[in-house]
Amino acid sequence: MKSTGGSDAEKRAAGESAAEAVEDGTVVGLGTGSTAAHAIRAVGRRVDSGLDVRGIPTSFQSRQLAKEAGIPLTTLDEAGTVDLAIDGADQFSGPHLVKGGGAAHAREKIVDAAADRLLVVADPSKAAERLDHSVPVEVLPDARTTVAAEVRGLGGSPTLRSAERKDGPVVTDNGNLVLDCEFGTIANPAELAADLAGLPGAVEHGLFVGMADEIHVGREDGADVKTF
Ligand SMILES: O=C(CO)[C@H](O)[C@H](O)COP(=O)(O)O
């Protein structure tokens, strides 16, 4: 699993802190990435101790991890609602997030938006005064050229994400491609989110505007919780 940013101890502290918030008898969205992985393993340990939950994974990776951790799984179709989602972020500023470093942001946004509460888990390197991380845009393969042109028209600089250990582009769990779009400092995340959402062939973008209810920021020896 690709790991970026802070230390593993910080990520683990964040994941374990959020996993403590999971209540008995609930449906939990399971995010993607190295920090969310710690939360999934921690929820699994609580399941071993008798916690009754059902998890909704947001990616192939989180499904595999949840199965290994012994978390019973369900789907949005079956469960209908999500009580709590735990997910990572590539950057956060207040409750606003940039996600999609693992190219899982389309399913993550569906599950995170459906949740009554979204708990973000992050190491301190993900904090920013204002969002300035590149924004991943998942695109239908046929739309990559036209969406890239539209992104340039919005003042962005798109780059097709290349795979590591495979020739060619990253292909998402949904069979699509990813354009990483640099906009510099994002003055108005809501406006950019609306512009990107309106592009034909853009499946989903990685701006999660105002979506975090809590951010658990891991330290070497614990976690700080910001509530919104
Ligand atoms: O959005 C994501 C995947 O699409 C991840 O949550 C994000 O990339 C953070 O990952 P990590 O915890 O490994 O830094």
UniProtKB/TrEMBL annotation:
Functional pathway: Carbohydrate degradation; pentose phosphate pathway; D-ribose 5-phosphate from D-ribulose 5-phosphate (non-oxidative stage): step 1/1
A Gene Ontology BP annotation from the UniProt entry: pentose-phosphate shunt, non-oxidative branch
Pfam families associated with the record: Rib_5-P_isom_A (PF06026)
Active site residues per record: 108 (proton acceptor)
InterPro entries: NagB/RpiA_transferase-like (IPR037171), Ribose5P_isomerase_typA_subgr (IPR020672), Ribose5P_isomerase_type_A (IPR004788)
Cellular-component GO terms for this entry: cytosol
Enzyme class: isomerase
Binding site for substrate: 32-35, 87-90, 99-102, 126
Domain of life of the native organism: Archaea
Keywords for the protein's UniProt record, in alphabetical order: Isomerase
Single Gene Ontology MF annotation: ribose-5-phosphate isomerase activity
Alphabetical list of SUPFAM superfamilies matching this protein: D-ribose-5-phosphate isomerase (RpiA), lid domain (SSF75445), NagB/RpiA/CoA transferase-like (SSF100950)
Catalytic activity, EC: 5.3.1.6
Residue span of region Disordered: 1-24
Catalytic activity, reaction form: aldehydo-D-ribose 5-phosphate = D-ribulose 5-phosphate
Family according to the record: Belongs to the ribose 5-phosphate isomerase family.
Subunit architecture: Homodimer.
PANTHER family reported in the protein's UniProt record: RIBOSE-5-PHOSPHATE ISOMERASE (PTHR11934:SF0)
Function: Catalyzes the reversible conversion of ribose-5-phosphate to ribulose 5-phosphate.
HAMAP family the UniProt entry points to: Rib_5P_isom_A
Protein name per its UniProtKB record: Ribose-5-phosphate isomerase A
